Amino acid sequence: MLPTELQRVIAGVKRPTRRAVLVASAAAGGALMVGWYAFAKDQPRGDGELNAFVTITPNNAITIVAKNPEVGQGAKTALAMMIAEELDADWSHVTIAQADLDTTVFKGQYAGGSMMTPENYLPMRQVGAATRALLIKAAAKKWGVPESECSTAKSAVYHHASKKSASYGALAAAASRFDAPDPKTLVLKDPKAFTIIGKPTVGIDSARLVKGAPLYGIDVTVPGMLYAVFQKCPVFGGKVKSANLDAIKKLPGVKDAFVVEGGSKEVFEAEGGTVSSGLLPGIAIVATSWWQADKARKALQVVWDEGPYGATSSESLAKEADAAFLKPATLSLRNTGDTDSALKTAAKTVEARYDYPFIAHVTLEPQNCTAHVANGKAEFWAPTQLPEAARGLVAHTLGIDLKNITVHMTRSGGGFGRRLMNDYMVEAAWISKTVGAPVKLVWSRADDIGHDFYRPGGWHQIKAGLDKDGKPVAWKHHFVSFGKDKKFASCAGMSPDSYPAGRVPNMVYGASLIQTGIPMGPLRAPGENALVWVFQSFIDELAQAAGKDPLSYQLELLGKDEKLPGRGEGFSTARSRGVLEKVRQMSGWGRALPPRTGLGVAFAYCHLGYAAEVAEVSVAKDGAITIHKIWSAVDVGRQIVNPMGAENQCQGGIVDALSHALNQKITFANGRTVQTNFDGHMPVTMHQVPPMEIAFVLSDNNPTGLGEPVFPPVIPAVTNAIFAASGKRVRSLPIDEKSLAV
Amino acid sequence: MQYRLNVNGTEHSIEVDPDTPLLWVLRDAMNLKGTKYGCGAGICGACTVHIDGEPVRSCLMAVSSLGTSKITTIEGISASPVGQRVQEAWLKVDVMQCGYCQPGQIMEATALLSRNKAPSDGDITTAMDSHICRCGTYTRIREAIKLAAAKEA
User: Fold this and answer.
1) What topology is assigned to B78-152 in CATH?
2) A413-452 per-position pLDDT tens digit
3) A363 CB near a chain B CB, below 8 Å?
4) Which of A423, A519, B52, B90 has an alpha carbon within 20 to 30 A of A327's alpha carbon?
5) Whole-prediction pTM value?
């Protein structure tokens, strides 16, 4: 998530003392969570406020609190569905309220890593069951009957023997006087009895969104608010020498213009002295409207101290990579068996080099934050995926006590990992404190694309040896990436367990690191969004060298059913096989195809989920490609919480990967990002989107998330299909159609 | 400068600089936040409104150029039967992920169906291709447009 050292810096900030309100339960595992989420006995509680999550009014209106930020992944709806299911609420009675950041009550208030479902599926259901138990207790007491004889359905409690019933609304005030039940007494529903979980459910904000309701951070208005732009040095690591601030201050609407020196050196150092989610140096312009502030910026004349990275360019980085390949890797990631000997004795060797570019997140809602800092307190309205880190960063940079910082989480116009970093929030805080008024900071698109935490580019040199049966016996892999002092930059690393680790006996994974000032960070399926393309492409090359069908080769390589080392419970070869078999069947793998048309396959284990994809692609003689269809088989466990949102996430993951495959590439020149808007870095638009067919393989595993797993196999499925269609191997992204011409 | 603008059927009086783009007039001077800022360069389509029924990029339209044109935004589009059908279809299909681009998409789709009651797949692609949905809901956008068109038939 965040670089470890940064977390340490933030953790070093004084913690709140209100931990006393937490009710620590001794129960194991997820059951603990109900204790965390219940209000303590001495906590004042309003009528019908059953716990931190559920409030029911006498007219049977049920308000459920969504604790996590909504960035388009469907958290607000899905979290409430989990609670409503076990509560036995009538979904039409439910409204959902977005929680503020409150770590004294809630855990895991973030959006990232496809973790919303796996972290909350059980605890949220327990919250619902605990709330239901309170309502049953109130009814049983009122009627003088045993709780065990009461049942619930559609927001009401029933006692069938006496034919009594009462709505939740009628019972809620009495129920809110009871303490939370012992988690051990809670019985969760048999999934066969689900009426809300598993039912396609329209997003809770959708009806307002189609009417243009102001739900996003950029839509926030607070009384007395001013507008700000913040101009940072276009060269990463640069700072302000001087600027024509007196002239800027005279421009229409401008209230103030000033230099921001930058934030804590400790935060910069914690991030390797290059990447920073802290306060960067720059010039703030504050005006009575955003347009006036941004217009004033166009008149800004700044002399920058460009710092040490002013000569960086995409070409200079590529040259450094070339030089690194001439030497042995400096960092050993994995070394099993005797790879060099095995390569010498192999029946056949295959060698290839792959590279991929930097990519920017470009959330459609640019980064923005409304902040009000005054009298030692700070209040924020912001689209953020990681509000707790924002609070820590602000506390550290501005010297404000954590307990005096309030964060209201607005809806986010996209996240994709960009809003795990909270640089725009600390900027807004600094500007608000300086001008002594609430300030809405809105980045322009140029700010956004020029000051991202980019998906790192990378270069890979791989040599593999096959035995006489075409089975890989050796794999030597040199990865040139970014970092400093043998430590990878954020999200520029490669796991020693990267598949096919564990399936090739002699293996060397090594890396060499280029130091740079370019900020890097998590972008949807961090690491895997590029690495899976490299590995799955090269496995396809091995299948071809072995003269075998690529999909059969993948199944053979998976070998016996077992768990290999990997995230969570490990990498299951059985679940990988499951999605590959499913996608084989879905796509009609092996069928006859028209000339210059091919099928390509790839799979991945990513963020606890398994996905296999097949693409059907034609390559014209001039190199133009047509993606006819993409099939995707996905295993995220036994239960899809909201099939409506789940399918949308899968489609989005595929489309996002196509943007990487076909269009997107960030380049650098003179220490700065070349692209200044969407042109030159376009997400795919409608004409590039093929039909997609998605199927869920329901395996007997706990439900996990869908934001990430579907993404990684898309690009190799497409490029492997290009090979099948044309005999040309794509080893550099984005795909250059000209290179595919006959 | 003082301007009188006809927005969603009502005359409004506002005081802004002449070169202020309609986008920022709507958002910050009139507090109509449904029209979104995405690129400021006419590339993404998030700021699409109707001027006399035609879809335009409000980020590129200076307030001084508007005269007596009738401006319709996402907040007012349900006054048109086509706009209402499009919004209903968007909700039925639940097109949205983050939802930020969707006001612009809905305005473009309403304009398309107003001039072409039964668009082909190709017509839909041509009309909608200048809009970015960063979440990738294009399949659902197409489905919602077809649903809205079918309701007209």
Assistant:
1) DNA polymerase; domain 1 (1.10.150)
2) 999 999 999 999 999 999 999 999 999 999 999 999 999 9
3) yes
4) A519
5) 0.95
